[in-house]
Amino acid sequence: MSDLAIGLPPLSAVRAFEAAVRHGSFTLAAAELGMTQAAVSYQIKLLEERLGAPLFRRRPRGVILTEIGERLGDAVTDAFDGLRGAFAAVTETAEGVLSVQALPTFAANWLAPRLGLFQCANPSLAIRLVPQVSQRQPEVDDCDVVIRRGSGQWPGLEAHWLMTNEYTPLCGPGLFRHLGRAAQPADLVAVPHFGCPKAWTGWFAAAGAPTADTVSEARIDLVVQQFEVTAALAGNGAVMAQPAFFRRELNQGVLVQPFDVMLRDGQDYWLTYPTRRRNSRKIRLFRDWVLKEAREG
Question: Is the pTM value of this prediction over 0.70?
């Protein structure tokens, strides 16, 4: 009978045989595979019937390979060692790089300055930071984790709250001096505005300032908050932004927060990853670290 006619035996039987060969024991093979000793014995019996020859000699205190069992055992063990090596190499590569997708301003101003701490704590894990430049739903298949804004409810994703999305007008010190110490929120109506028009309208309403039609004429939306803050730093207007992302500039005085009124839109920042990958070691390491960083500010 040809090899093609014989075909390959069931993998479960081959797996039980390989474990029994390595351990020299049905009992130890069963413990490794999470099976009963009787189940291992049955799988090997199926293999022996398939081959038409015994593979083990059963003894009261164990089993001994027959001549055919030894020949087959060497080949099967080598094959499984090759498979283990291949899977280990793939797993090591996959688990050795963590890809993180985040909105550009969050990535550049909050996450990137902290990643060195994570790298020091996990030197064997490389980080690939991918900015999410599109306003559409970010893709999760190409990245291990995605830091996104929203309500925290996404089917198929684990979501961990990081921080509130709260914003207020920021401007350069020159514009702040021009407004004067007695400035009121309404004084910003006539100032060029960078940022989302809806956010400006909401903030003016929360601050009790009039939302005249002239406000919309002065609005400039550069999409990425980082670009808008850069424009404001040049003294060209005020930007609606999250102060938490610009602590350094605020502390240095190159950026000023004129008013204490903060606005929230319910679209907070969340760490997300596919539920099916929640047991990934690299994801768990990053999750625990970034949640701790977010709690500590």
Answer: no
